[in-house]
Amino acid sequence: MSEKEKMIEVSDLHFSYGKRPVLDGVSFDLYQGEYVCILGANGCGKTTLLKTMLAFLRPQKGHVRLYGQDVHRMDERSLAQKIAYIPQTHTPPFPFTVQDVVLLGRTPHLSRMCQPTSKDLDIARQAMDRLGISAYADRCYTELSGGQRQMVMIARALTQQPDLLMMDEPTASLDFGNQYLVLEQMRQLAQEGMGVLMVTHNPDHALYCADRIIAMGEGRIISMGEASGVVTEPTMERLYGMEIKVRSVPLEPPRETTVCIPVPRLSSP
After folding, report:
1. Contact 171, 197 (CB under 8 A)
2. C-alpha distances in angstroms, 24 versus 70, 137, 220, 239?
3. Which is higher by pLDDT, 199 or 267?
4. Which strand (E) or helix (H) includes residue 258?
5. What is the rounded distance in angstroms from the CA atom of residue 62 to the CA atom of residue 83?
6. I want to staple 32 with a disulfide (CB 3.0 to 4.6 A). Which of 4, 20, 92, 235 is the partner?
């Protein structure tokens, strides 16, 4: 990755809630056009790491730099022009239409009190087209299903036209087909030069899309690198506390894919 520009530098990050440490010396870099998955069980510190990188939380020690600049010293507008964030859940305070919600992604690029232009509207419509949700444009966002809302949040992030996209379990509320539609779209964005950082507890999603996987446990990075070196049976068992088999599955030759198979603790009767 050395030939690509470094976007994010996370160095020796520590964070605690009261006396309970959540991040303990986390360090890694993310480069332009790279798709990185942060993988781990619930409660391992993944979401806290993401919030610290977004400057929602201030670390007790360490730093996060975006293009060499400390994110905690950047103003919100400048940060939002570079980074888009897709949370796990979102409920707006007013019953906006889907198109209005997606169009909010242009806010960091507009002057104060300035209305969106036809160009901004075109960008929003292109994002909705890309995700196949243009038919929802005039529907009330609050009336959509959880999965439909998440697709709208992803469209809003794309409308923001960021350099880096950060996502916290973005497929959690989506059905099986739409999960992989989103992963494919994010993979395409990375190939087009956008940096993508995705938090997930699902190793199969990380295997499917990531250039690099960061496995976290108890606030620390326990393994980092390409999928084959991180998604191993000992590491997965350490992450999730159960027996997991990692297997290659043949597809149309010469392709194959790798999947994780949990082993039931109790035998079926």
Report:
1. no
2. 19, 44, 6, 16
3. 199
4. strand 256-262
5. 20
6. 4
Residue 174, SS3?
A: coil
Tell me if 165 sits within 8 A of 196, measured CB to CB.
Answer: yes
Sheet containing 195-200, strands listed edge to edge, beginning at the edge strand earlier in sequence: 83-86, 164-168, 195-200, 35-39, 212-217, 220-225
Hunting for tokens 């103003």 — which residue is that?
75
Distance separating the N- and C-terminal Cα atoms of the chain: 50
Kindly report whether the global pTM for this prediction surpasses the value 0.70. yes
Determine the average pLDDT of the residues in 13-28: 95
Does residue 168 have a pLDDT over 80? yes
In whole angstroms, give the CA distance from residue 31 to residue 8: 7
Residues 6+ apart with CB under 8 A from 118: none
Angle between helices 146-159 and 176-191 (to 10 degrees): 10
Query: In whole angstroms, what is the distance from residue 86 CA to residue 186 CA?
Result: 12
Residue 15's DSSP bridge partners are: 23
- Compute the average pLDDT of residues 52-66: 96
Asked if residues 206 and 231 have their Cβ atoms less than 8 Å apart, the reply is yes
Question: Residue 2 — pLDDT band, cuts 50, 70, 90?
Answer: very low
**Residue 230 is encoded by which pair of tokens?**
């991180």
Do residues 67 and 31 lie in contact, with contact meaning Cβ atoms separated by under 8 Å?
Answer: no
pLDDT in tens, 93-133: 678 999 999 999 999 998 777 888 999 999 999 999 998 89
d(CA 234, CA 225): 15
Pull the structure tokens for residue 149. Answer: 């809302």
